[in-house]
Amino acid sequence: MPLWLDLLIRVAAVMAGFLVLPLVIGQAEHKVMAHMQGRVGPMYAGAFHGWAQLIADGVKFVQKEDITPRDADRTVFRLAPIVALFPYLVVILTIPLGPGLVAQSLDIGLFLVLAVLGIGVVAVLMSAWASANKYSLLGGVRGAAQLLAYELPLVLAAASVAMAAGTLSLPGIVEAWRPWWLIWQAPAAFIFFIAGLAEIRRPPFDMPIADSELVFGYMTEYTGLRFAFFLLAEYVGIVVIAALTTVLFLGGWHGPFEEQLGWLWTLLKIFALSFVIIWFRVSYPRLREDQLQRLCWLILVPLALAQLVLTAAVKSLL
Amino acid sequence: MSENGDRIAPGKGLLDGLAVTFKTMTRRSTTQQYPDVEPDLPPRSRGVIALLEENCTVCMLCARECPDWCIYIDSHKEEVVVPGAARARQRNVLDKFDIDFSLCMYCGICIEVCPFDALHWTPEFEYAETDVLSLLHDKDRLGDWMRTVPPPPAHDVLGEPSKEEATAARKAAGPGAATAAKTARPAGVRATPPTSDPGSPSAPPASAKEPER
């Protein structure tokens, strides 16, 4: 296979995953959230149980007027949604679906993923500051505080599993994974998942967005396609956090018939975790700002450090 | 934080919350797909008021009792010449009977007070308009609603017999018999002891009310 064709297939596959998975999860959120609240959710778009609701939403967003506030910093304002979306695209490149089934296998995949996820805070600050709106600014500052705080337990938990596997390559970590790691790395998995939720600003960690007090935080001034980009970023964020937790802590493609069905196991685990993320959103009220920081600094960070010690101890014993 | 006495295990609240949402998800939702599926309305639903014009005597009770004053009635008198009678009789003819449903609060008092059953509830509710003035239904439109009046629900088998039935039974039993209202009822459902008022055959409570109206 010539190099360009190989590249084309990989890029097309990643783009397809990047566009389809968030839609599937967004639709699942509509339906799951509705049924958890005793409703039925969208029923009309696409005739069968509203399966085309998000496509209809997309068409609607495209038709909307693209407004930039007069006092806004136009360039930064327009760039921010792309900056919010782009890191997730890069992350998806490095996530292995099955044995050998990865768009771009990197030796330092985990390092790249964590570094790129950190760009999210830049997008939040860009949109917040450029909007020239006090609600946006408040949301942005909250977002920055939250993202910076939760970056630490996220990285520490990921470091624990990297130590255990002895590699930073994501396929390498999956290959090194053994079922008993589920217990050994359970605190790290828990910390990573919770910190990941906070990183993508999902409820109950949606203090920067907090629609009941800040309108919509740093997204207040956005309309049309740019707003849709932010929403898409949120759902790709769910995919990315679920996929990373799967790959790092739940053994990725490991399961029966993993040579043939590895990709299916990975996808199933991703969907199960996405369901949990939606479930959390329905079940829990939003954390107050001080509770949010308290959870991070007083619970997650010490736990992550303890997990590092545990990982090192077990590793040296083996 | 709860007091020290009833402190629950940490995280129990979080798990309980998850359990509640999950249980709700497994249950069927009660949503009615209304425009697609007609709602299953309970008996005596109050949708719109229908007018049976022949029964109306223009007594104006409904218009006067209406708390919103949303019933508008106009009429004139007509002479009816009865052959052989000493003089012509007069009869009320209804010219206008409008109910303004933009004012109506669906209390049903007009239907309650109508002595001749000219007004009826019907469960029909799809008469929304884009113009508020169109909510004034004239007597033709009110008469048209009569199509949708459901048959009255069956009597409660354990309930009191209607006044008409009780009176008929009393007359059939002849004067001095035990109160018809009591004998017509099934014996098993009596709540009060049967010997409470043995000697008052001519004054059932229903007929005592009559002069008040």
- Taken together, the total number of domains of chain A comes to 1
Record field, number of beta strands of chain B: 5
Shape descriptor of chain B reads elongated
β-strand percent of chain B reads: 15-25%
Number of helices of chain B: 7
Question: How would the blueprint of this fold be written?
Answer:
The complex is a heterodimer of chains A (318) and B (213).
Chain A: H1 3-36, H2 53-63, H3 74-93, H4 109-117, H5 120-130, H6 134-165, H7 170-176, H8 181-184, H9 186-199, H10 211-214, H11 224-249, H12 258-283, H13 289-317
Helix pairs in contact in A: 1-11, 1-12, 2-11, 3-4, 3-5, 3-11, 5-6, 6-7, 6-9, 6-13, 9-11, 9-13, 11-12
Chain B: H1 12-26, E1 48-51, H2 61-65, E2 71-80, E3 89-100, H3 109-113, E4 119-122, E5 136-137, H4 139-144, H5 163-173, H6 180-183, H7 205-209
Antiparallel strand pairs in B: 1-4, 2-3, 3-5
Describe this structure as you would to a colleague.
Chain A is an all-alpha fold. Chain A has helices at residues 3-36, 53-63, 74-93, 109-117, 120-130, 134-165, 170-176, 181-184, 186-199, 211-214, 224-249, 258-283, 289-317. Chain A has one domain. Chain A is built from 13 helices and no strands. The model of chain A has no long low-confidence stretch (mean pLDDT 87). The model of chain B is unreliable at 187-213 (pLDDT under 50). By secondary structure, chain B is an alpha+beta fold. In chain B, the strands form 2 sheets. Chain B has a 3-stranded antiparallel β-sheet with strand order 2-3-5. Chain B is elongated and about 95 Å long. Chain B has 7 helices and 5 strands, in the order H-E-H-E-E-H-E-E-H-H-H-H. At the A-B interface, helix 1 and helix 12 of A face helix 1 of B.
